[in-house]
Amino acid sequence: MKTSRLMKLLILLTAVAMLLAACPAPMPASDSGSGAADTGDSMAGDFKVGLVTDVGRVNDRSFNQSAWEGVVAAAEALGLAEDDIKYIETQDAKDYADNMQQFIDADYNVIVSVGFALGDATTTAAKENPDVFFIGVDQFQGEAMPNVAGLIFNEDHSGYLAGVLAGSLSKTGTIAAVLGTDLVPPVVAFNEGYIAGAKSVNADINVISTYHPGEISQAFVDPEWGAATAKQALDQGADVIFGAGGITGNGALQEVATADGAGEAVFCIGVDTDQWNTVPAAQPCLISSAMKLITPGVVELVTMASEGEFPGGNYFGDADLAPFHDFDDMVPQELKDLLEETKAGLIDGSIDTGYGN
Amino acid sequence: MSKNAPVSAFHRLRRRYGNTMIVALALIIMAILVNMTPLKEQTWLRVLFGVSALNFTLRATVPLVLGALSGILCERSGIINIGIEGMMLAGAFAGFVAKTSTNHWSLAASLIFSVAAAVAVGGLMGAVHALFSIRFRMDQIISGTVIIILALGTTSYLYNRDAIAEGKFSSIPIPGLAQIPVLGPVLFDNPPITYLALIMVAVVHLGLFYTRWGLRTRAVGEHPRAADTVGINVNRYRYINTSLGGMLAGLAGAFLVLEAVGQFQEGMTAGRGFISLAAMIFGNWNPIGALGAATLFGYTQALQNELLLAGVTQVPRQFISMLPYVVTIVAVSGLVGRVRPPAAEGKVYETEGSA
Amino acid sequence: MATATSTAGLTRTLRALLIPSLALLAALLAGAVVMILSGDDPMAAYSGLFKGAFGDGKGWARTIRKTIPFVLTGLSVALAFKVSLFNIGASGQFVMGSVFAVAVGINFEGLPFYIHLPLALLAGIAGGLLWGAIPGILKVYTGAHEVIVTIMLNYVASLFGGWTVYAGGTQGQTPGPLWDRTAGAISETPDVLHSAQIPWLFGPPYRVHYGVFLALAAAILVWWLIFKTPLGFEMRTVGHNMRAARYAGIRVNFTIILTMALAGGLAGLAGAIETLGLNHKFAPEFGGAVGFDGITVALLGQTHPIGVLLAAFMFGALDGGAATMQFESGVPADIIQIIQALVLAFVAAPLIIRMIFRLRQQEDQDAGSAVSTSWGGT
Hints:
The complex is a heterotrimer. By secondary structure, chain A is α/β, with parallel strands linked by helices. Chain A is built from twelve helices and twelve strands. Helix content of chain A is 42%, strand content 17%. The longest helix of chain A has 19 residues. A two-stranded antiparallel sheet of chain C has the order 1-2.
């Protein structure tokens, strides 16, 4: 056959091209999978911490990553060996129980399960394994069990603070929120707090907020929708945009960062962590972030478990606004004072966000 | 005689490009009316025809029309391309990898290089599809499915989430035209790939219908035996067209990563390749028809978002979100006997005597 | 079946097994190359994979549990292939099956299990049947290609499923009809009543239920339908040559709609079994990803019910071992997806396999069915 040599060449070329395409991509992150520094020797070998992600990857620049960083930090503080902390990335919601079972079978002492969707599987596993400590991120505990700590947050509080900030900064009288899905309670809490906070400083403010329209598997990983929706909100006159929904929200932040007047007339507010650090591309507009501090919460709980003083039931982590970074000068002192007062009011209960009533 | 001319011209347009053109035209006229008159005080009209809705429409249309053009190129030459989704994703990933490895270059150079990488990898995927379909006689729909699954798995496996693409394309207003009210900000104040996509519609249209290459491509897709007899190398045309189609899908991927978002995300094409296919069919394998269809689908996505943002309806949001998909189904089923795919599509062509 | 033990039958069976086995081998090798190139250890990965799938009782349990839905979605796609229809909609049909089954499963308290459970399973089949019939009907009466329609219906089903358990919005949106009021803001149904749950064959931590036998029975039933009934003969004739079938007086339109409906019913049954046997509730995150894998399973099984069983088992093992693979070796589970895609590529293009392993061309054409019947305008 005349063409056969040409074909072999083509196949070879394809193969080479595929390899080349693979090469510039740095090592897959799995190498950092067990990344705790082998610093101490105090507890190595007899205290092991495992983490089961929600469907997705451990380095998702979102809540899975925050929780894993908490495990890594705790391991460093406690001097655990590299092999004593591991994670399993969940591929399918049906696998939550199986993945936890892997750690139980390998005699892990603490299992961190990330996301409210793992709540049922965590409770079941905890009942069957009373000797293992479970940390359930975003998992509200209806009835307290001694070996399960639900690390939860008052997202409505930090959302409320973000709303006060946005409502005070807005010149156009329109602000927006671009959100993950309302099938997930914490996202709703952020949004309800945001709206209430904005209305508390400007009763007439127009808040246009929308949840991702798609299914749950897409809602947090659709940056294109986040960006397009942020643009849409800008077109409708919004000048502060709250992006709350994992990578979807990050898409919104990046869109605002490249808009006309970013950082002068239009601003964005991030979510979960201080996104000044996690999404550098958003820095031109990122005035603050409505945080729920998963990482320190996980560190605290893992440490307590290692000391045998594990608090069963609900454990509230910090929910607060992130620093203003480069925009510090643009936030007037009276607004800073107002935010401090509001925060105090939220903590002592004199201010009610209206969420959950 | 002059009385009939506009009517028959309209008929010709309609016959040629289908009802999609009428949809697009009606949209533009209504938009101008609503945005320039007191009608814009009406919430419902603003939802339907506001500038934000139109901007969203164009933005959603770009990847769809590029995908549809990709499908047209392949299918006009007789190769079914269901793998547009995978080619787009591979292109997006390649664009991202190229961008992150050239962050230290000047922004323009880095972006242009990344677009080239995306287009090249898209073309490569197209070539693989052609190779599977022609050389290995794999069923073309299955080959497309393989392309999709392979692209999904490989990009997720290789994606380095710590890599950051610095910068993306920003808008380039066209002097003069951008000042036109309503149409200016929507059509003439866009980033480059959006312009390029619209230009590609014209290029593919002219190429298919007014060049020798186009004539031969269509001959190969309609009647390969006849084409072969007059000395056209059937499979060569199919390889070339499928690769070109892959390149257009790669460009759609570049749009997503380098223009729309500025970052890669696993599975970020999110079904756009499939809706492109529907746009191709609804547009009757015609580039301008496909543009009309893609605009319609883009518009339903915009509408879905506008309705949610405005909060004007109590219909559960899941039903509003079904809009683009239901419209797609209605579009492809409302065509009894009206569309006709290239006749030789999906069939392996073997020259006389070879076996 | 008895004749299959004859020598000729045995040779044929062996030949049918040859290409898929070599395809699997080639895919595993290619997967190893990808891993080496990206700095992972393929030996550690594959030994972890094997250990996770077959290492102990729990491993076997995982593999079997995961095989069940693959069998049914694989059969769904394979049945449609027999009629030259491409059912990409198994995941939507799976979701509809889950939703319908759970709707029966959480209601009708007090029914005895021998009525409640079959009723819930039938409801699941009905949900899938309905979702499969739509593309069949549209194809016959409007010429809309089932590939586009089934893909779009997947999205619609997913959104519909989300709506049924939607916890409601704070701006007056009403909650979905199946939402569990006691779950607070969480979007999920209540637990399926005990009388509608498929009983355990091996209880926790193994969690293998009697659905295994339902899947086996479905495979036998589909085999019988395709090869032993007049209807099956009509299906195969339509799949082989639609025009000839029409001349022969076969009700082509009826066959197409019926086949799509039955394919949907099989995927719906998969959803029902997963819901009633394993999840015991429906939530948006229990999507129908196994539906898409059904395509690969069907092709790997050469669209033959027995082949589908074997292919599903292989997929069950790959998925069942994935978590252990990551646990032991740190290799992300995405590599499984790459391997699955490569298996599909090699099976669908036996020529590649022949070239790699230097096999001689067979005189008869390969079993891979032709589905590219174009987009079907008229």
